[in-house]
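Chapter review: from sequence to fold.
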Amino acid sequence: MPYRDPPKPGQRRIALVHAIPVSIDPINQAFAEHWPEAWAFNLLEDSLIAGLAEAGGFTALFNRRLTDLCRYCVDAGADAILFTGSAFGPAVDAAKAKVTVPVLKPYEAMIAQALAAGSNLGLIASFRGTFAPFKADVMAAARHPIGLFTEEATGALEALEAGDAATHDRLVAEAAARLPACDAVMLAQYSMARAAPLVKHPKVLTPPDAAVLHLKQLLGA
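The token string follows.
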């Protein structure tokens, strides 16, 4: 990867914090498409998933790890911070109150889009640990009774990490096909955005696109 020039005066700096490498390309592609003027930079901390399992949940020590990552991003000049890992919602919430710039969970903008689409929502995840925090955030954000139907794309993430993107995409599409009728289908992981064209539903939402558009609006760009 080539060295980068510093951001230009007034250019918005967005810190992207990742727990797995396959989340990096989807969000960078979303920035290239929707907000190329932003200066986004990537932090990969690939021990977070193992650290959460080792801690046994969202302990004060684990939450502090994410807060420290946010403070590093602020020191690097970030105007906003976006976590792309979908299983860390409570720790991200804990960090929000401790830093001076907006901190976003990976899917909160997508949840807002989904709730605007209707009351029966589908959720596909390729990482099982996503479901509990995601469901909690959907229910907290909902202003009306909703139905949330979930399916796991079992083996999809492992296939993608092994370099088999075609199998990943097929497993995501097959999981979506098992959902009942929904007003919108959400793909939980950033790494799943590549499979969206294969999902046969009129409204398929992906977190990278939703997050970038939300950040652009939030920061007045």
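Two observations follow directly from the output. The chain has two domains: 13-106+209-218, 108-206. The chain has a mean pLDDT of 94.
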